[in-house]
Design a protein that fits this description.
The chain has 10 helices and 16 strands. It is α/β, with parallel strands linked by helices. It folds into 2 domains: 186 residues, Medium-chain alcohol dehydrogenases, catalytic domain (Quinone Oxidoreductase, Chain A, domain 1), CATH 3.90.180.10; 136 residues, NAD(P)-binding Rossmann-like Domain (Rossmann fold). α8 links the parallel β13 and β14. α3 packs across α4, α3 crosses α9 and α6 runs parallel beside α7. The longest helix has 19 residues. It starts with a strand and ends in a 7-residue tail after the last strand. The model has no long low-confidence stretch (mean pLDDT 93).
């Protein structure tokens, strides 16, 4: 048997309950991973709260790292003992809030030794999302400034790391506190003058400051927050510019898409809506997209060209640790990624 944290009903963090489940057995085309660390993501909170309908009961969790301990007979690229990381969504036995999971080999890659298990558990969702928004679209350009709404969170931090690796910038971004600003300066070496505290000024003031500091509007804006921050991105995005966002909006969002008076039409903007999980519905051939991108990211980590995620360990795997992680995610102001450690046979 294995320990897992299960969601039996939609609600607050209190609906996350520890339960013993049978250890899953891999199919002929799967590997089984003994999990070493679990990454927490805002999507987990939305699923738990019922904002996105899923069948219940459910073991949530996308990000993980661990060691392969069983391999299906038709899976030839991995062996028992391989250290891996990946994301558990779609074609897998259960989510990552567990001690074991079985998963398609297209959704895992070998962990470079330059990453700890905790760091590796913070990679997949955030770095894949940022990669698809910035590199996959071909927008990120060397030595070209861009504006990032929400630099402190998991995707925002990954975006800054990728921008540094691809020599893009200077980077202009936002933070919601002095602690957040300090994190961005110390972690990434950003210019403090290019970080705006969105809690202390309105959209118009921020737009004016950004355009003045950049000596013009931006070719590329990346929205990791939504709402008012997406409005800000539209305000500072230049003619023929590109705007990427990872968050949809309600029907009453004040920036219309299709009208003649739309900023998108008036400025000939290209808008890229990024749903990292979209290729999961396409079957194994589509899943290879994730593998190629994860392997590329792993190679950048191995060559130390990409800064590892900044992770904070909430605690050891337990019902209360997962609940606390969800409470922290709901409260906001996370710097980097929250992870939970899962002890293995060596007592890690």
């Amino acid at each position: 048997m294995m320990r897992a944290v299960v969601t039996n009903t939609f609600g607050g963090p209190e609906v996350l309950c520890e339960k013993e489940l049978p250890i899953p057995k891999p199919s002929r085309d799967e590997v089984r991973v003994k999990i070493s660390a679990i990454g927490l993501n805002p999507i987990d909170v939305k699923l738990r709260g019922g904002m996105i309908e899923i069948p219940l009961p459910q073991v949530l969790g996308c990000d993980f790292s661990g060691v392969i301990d069983a391999v299906g007979d038709r899976c030839t690229e991995y062996s028992e003992g391989d250290e891996v990381f990946g994301f558990a969504s779609g074609p897998c036995s259960n989510g990552s809030y567990a001690e074991y999971l079985c998963i398609a080999p297209q959704l895992v890659v070998k962990k470079p030794k330059e990453l700890s298990f905790d760091q590796a558990a913070g990679v997949s969702v955030t770095y894949l999302t940022a990669f698809q928004a910035m590199v996959g679209t071909g927008i990120l350009q060397k030595e070209r400034p861009f504006f990032l709404a929400g630099g402190c969170g998991g995707v925002g931090s990954a975006a800054i790391s990728l921008a540094k690796a691809y020599e893009a910038g200077p980077i202009f971004t936002t933070a919601g506190s002095e602690e957040g600003k300090k994190y961005l300066v110390e972690r990434f070496g950003l210019n403090e003058e290019n970080i705006l505290n969105y809690r202390k000024m309105g959209i118009e003031e921020m737009a004016e400051i950004l355009i003045k500091k950049n000596e013009g509007k931006f070719y590329f804006c990346f929205d990791c927050v939504g709402g008012a921050m997406k409005e800000l991105c539209f305000s500072v995005c230049d003619v023929n510019g590109h705007l990427a966002s990872i968050l949809p909006e309600e029907k009453d969002f004040p920036i219309p898409f299709w009208g003649r008076d739309s900023l998108i039409f008036q400025r000939s903007l290209s808008v890229h809506m990024i749903l990292m999980l979209s290729a999961l519905g396409g079957g194994p051939s589509s899943w290879n997209t994730y593998k190629v991108q994860l392997e590329h990211l792993a190679s950048l980590f191995a060559k130390k060209e990409l800064l590892p995620p900044h992770v904070e360990v909430v605690g050891s795997f337990s019902e209360e640790a997962v609940r606390e992680g969800h409470r922290r995610l709901e409260a906001g102001e996370i710097q980097g990624k929250l992870v939970i450690s899962v002890a293995d046979s060596t007592g890690r």
